[in-house]
Design a protein that fits this description.
Helices cover 40% and strands 19% of the residues. The protein has 433 residues and is an alpha/beta fold. The protein folds into two domains: 292 residues, UDP-N-acetylmuramoyl-L-alanine:D-glutamate ligase (3-Layer(aba) Sandwich); 129 residues, Mur ligase, C-terminal domain (Protein-Tyrosine Phosphatase, Chain A), CATH 3.90.190.20. Helix 2 runs parallel beside helix 5 and helix 3 packs across helix 9.
C-alpha cells in the first residue's frame, strides 16, 4: 500500500468480516506494536447517545485551554480521516497510509492464527492507539466507545476518567434486550480505581453502574446528584444553561450545539474538565470552559446546512435520539411547517422512531439510501399514510424543498449518521445551484 486510496480500500475491505466483539485480537495487536495503549493519557467515553457531542465539547474545552487533544470517534461524517483527529483537525492522508501499512503486516499474520484477522473497527482502533502513542503524541486523548463497552475494541485503554453518557435500547442484537443487560455492557468500561461520570437516569441501569463502580472501587459522579445543568434559554446556535457541581458553579454557559439534550451532554463535559483540573492538574480556567463550549462543533448534530431555505441535519439514529430531536423541534419551531426526511438502518426500531417523527412532522418522507444495512422501501411500506411517503431519491425531496420552501418551512434530515454523511456529500451541489 503506497497510496491513500489503497489504504482505505484495504481498511474498508475488512468490513466483510463483520463485527467481532472481544479483546483478544486487540491485545495481540497491542503486543506486536509495543503496547501503545500504555503510553497515553485518556478519557474513555461510552453511552447510547451523547458520546460524540460530549467528546466534541470536552475536546473544545481542552483545546481552548491549550492542550493538544486527540480524539478517536465514529462514524465519520465528511471524511474518513476525521475519526483520528488532533484539536479537531483530521490526520493527513499520508499518515493514514503509514498507519495502515504498519497494521497490515500484523493483520496478515493474524489471518494464520486461530483468532483470525481483525475487523475494520479493530484496525482503525489500533491505528489510533499507535498514532497517539508513537507518531503524534498529544497531551490527552478522548476515546469514544464504538459499540457497547465491555467487549469494545477501545476497552484496552486504562483511562484517567471514564464517562457513560446515557443508556437506551440500541444494538439489542449485540448488547441484550433489557436496560439492565445494556447497562452491564456499558459499565464494562469501568476500570479499578478509575472515577466514572454518568448521566444515566433509569433506576435499573443506574443500579448496575453503581454496583459495578463499587466493585471496582471507582468513585461515581451522577448527573442530577453530584452535578447538574439547568436550561435557561435557547440561542440562535445553541442552548444556555447554569452549571452546578460539587466543585462550584458557572452560570450562563452556552453551547455551540443546539438541542435541549445538549445541556446534559455539556454538563458532563464540564464536569469532566473540572475533574481533570482538580485531580490531574490540568490547567483549565472557567473562561476556557465558557469559550470551549461556545465554539464546539460536531457535524450532523442539529447542524444547520442552509438558512435560506432552512435545512437542518440531525443524526437521531435510535428511539432516544428521535425523542430528543422531536422535543427540540417542538421547542424551536412551534409555528413552522416541518418536513422530515428520514432514513435508518433496517435493524433499528423503525416503528417507534417513525411514530415519534410522524407526530412532529407535517410531512414525513422515508428514504432508502445506498448502504449495506440501510432499510429498503419494503421495510417502510407498512408506515405509509396521507402524510408519510416513501421516496426513491432523497435528493429529489431536498431539491423540491429548496425550490418551493417559504420562510414558514423547515426541512429536518434525520436518521442514521451514515445517511447524514451521504446527504452532506450531495447537498453542497444542490444548494450551490
Amino acid at each position: 500500500m503506497n497510496h491513500y486510496e489503497e489504504a482505505l480500500d484495504w481498511i474498508h475491505g475488512r468490513l466483510r468480516v463483520g463485527i467481532k466483539p472481544g479483546l483478544m485480537r486487540m491485545d495481540y495487536m497491542m503486543e506486536q506494536l509495543g503496547h501503545p495503549e500504555r503510553h497515553i493519557k485518556a478519557v474513555h467515553i461510552g453511552g447510547t447517545n451523547g458520546k460524540g457531542s460530549t467528546t466534541a465539547m470536552l475536546r473544545s474545552i481542552l483545546t481552548e485551554a491549550g492542550f493538544e487533544t486527540g480524539t478517536f470517534t465514529s462514524p465519520y461524517i465528511e471524511q474518513f480521516n476525521e475519526r483520528i483527529s488532533v484539536n479537531g483537525i483530521p490526520i493527513s492522508d499520508e499518515e493514514i497510509t503509514i498507519l495502515a501499512q504498519k497494521i497490515k503486516s500484523i493483520a496478515d499474520e493474524m489471518e494464520e492464527l486461530e483468532m483470525g484477522g481483525p475487523s475494520e473497527f479493530e484496525i482503525i482502533t489500533a491505528m489510533a492507539f499507535y498514532y497517539f502513542a508513537y507518531v503524534h503524541p498529544v497531551d490527552i486523548v478522548l476515546f469514544e466507545v464504538g459499540l457497547g463497552g465491555r467487549l469494545d475494541s477501545t476497552n484496552i485503554v486504562y483511562p484517567l476518567l471514564s464517562v457513560i453518557t446515557t443508556i437506551g435500547m440500541d444494538h439489542l442484537q449485540f448488547l441484550g434486550d433489557t436496560l439492565a443487560d445494556i447497562a452491564r455492557e456499558k459499565a464494562g468500561i469501568i476500570k479499578s480505581g478509575v472515577p466514572v461520570l454518568t448521566a444515566v437516569h433509569q433506576p435499573e441501569a443506574l443500579d448496575i453502574i453503581a454496583r459495578t463502580a463499587k466493585e471496582k472501587r471507582s468513585a461515581l459522579y451522577q448527573f442530577g446528584r453530584d452535578f447538574n445543568g439547568t436550561w435557561t434559554a435557547s440561542t440562535e446556535g445553541g442552548e444556555q444553561f447554569d452549571f452546578t457541581s460539587l466543585y462550584g458553579s458557572q452560570p450562563a454557559l452556552q453551547t455551540g450545539l443546539a438541542g435541549l439534550h445538549q445541556v446534559q451532554n455539556a454538563s458532563v463535559a464540564v464536569m469532566a474538565a473540572d475533574f481533570l483540573r482538580i485531580y490531574y492538574s490540568f490547567l483549565i480556567e472557567d473562561d476556557h470552559i465558557k469559550k470551549g463550549l461556545e465554539t464546539a462543533i460536531w457535524p450532523g448534530r442539529f447542524e444547520t446546512l442552509s438558512n435560506d431555505p432552512l435545512i437542518i441535519a440531525d443524526g437521531a439514529h435510535n428511539e432516544e435520539g428521535v425523542e430528543a430531536l422531536t422535543r427540540t423541534i417542538a421547542q424551536r419551531f412551534p409555528d413552522k411547517r416541518v418536513t422530515v426526511l428520514f432514513a435508518a438502518m433496517k435493524d433499528k426500531p423503525l416503528d417507534g422512531m417513525i411514530a415519534r417523527l410522524k407526530k412532529s412532522a407535517d410531512r414525513l418522507y422515508l428514504a432508502p439510501f445506498d448502504f449495506p444495512r440501510a432499510a429498503s422501501a419494503e421495510h417502510y411500506e407498512q408506515f405509509t399514510s396521507e402524510t408519510v411517503q416513501i421516496v426513491q431519491s432523497y435528493l429529489s425531496v431536498i431539491q423540491l424543498f429548496q425550490q418551493n420552501a417559504s420562510k414558514q418551512d423547515v426541512l429536518i434530515i434525520t436518521g442514521s449518521l451514515y445517511f447524514i454523511s451521504s446527504v452532506k456529500k450531495d447537498i453542497k451541489t444542490i444548494l450551490s445551484k
